[in-house]
Amino acid sequence: MPEPQRLPLPDASLLLYSGLSLGNEETVMRRLIDGIHWRQEYITLFGKTHKQPRLVAWYGDRNAVYTYSGKAYTPRPWTEELLRLRDLVEVAAASRFNSVLLNYYRDGRDAMGLHADDEPELGPEPVIASLSLGATRKLYFQHRFRRDLDTVTLPLQSGSLLVMGGQTQRYWKHGLRKTSRACEPRINLTFRYVFPESS
């Protein structure tokens, strides 16, 4: 297991692992693209409904029901590939996960707005382990309260694992901007623990 880099963000706990041994990453990507039940959700902004600019999927233990953006998601059963990846991530993050949210960014036009993974069912100090596959994309962070802090940009390469813990979700939002340059697909898997009694 490679040694993680501790990222110096105030009010946060961020560990970045590079080059996790996942097997052939192209094969893993293809298994996920072909084997995951992807769907495109809709969002309503200013009275207009739009397709979200990415595909998503929610997998996990049967009781790991997750609510975000006003919708409740019942998990699909773990696949063999997702269980294998979960086991690797649990060792690196030294945490237990009962669910995973997958985001499929098909090209540079797919993105995710600023948000925090701070839903009540994740607990007061959730550990979110974010595994990246495919194209390198830049995750950006903005402090939720301190305007004196600059936006922090973090390129995430294929095979990298970003572990966000402690007070990170309370004090920081993160997102993934669109890019105009040519961009190959990227899949992001964010492993988390949903407290079933709160769902």
In a nutshell, what does this entry contain?
This protein has 3 helices and 15 strands. By secondary structure, the protein is mainly β.
Percent helix, as a range, is: 10-25%
Number of strands: 15
Uncertain spans: none
Question: What characterizes the major β-sheet?
Answer: 7 strands, antiparallel
Order of helices and strands: EEHEEEEEHEEEEEEHEE
Counting H and I runs of at least 4 residues, what is the number of helices?
3
Quaternary structure annotation: single chain
Form type: globular
* Content of β-strand: 35-45%
**Cα gyration radius (Å):** 16 Å
**Gap between N and C termini:** 34 Å
In spatial order, strands of the major sheet run 1-2-13-10-15-8-5
Query: Which class best fits the helix and strand makeup?
Result: mainly beta
Q: Taking all residues together, what is the mean pLDDT?
A: 91
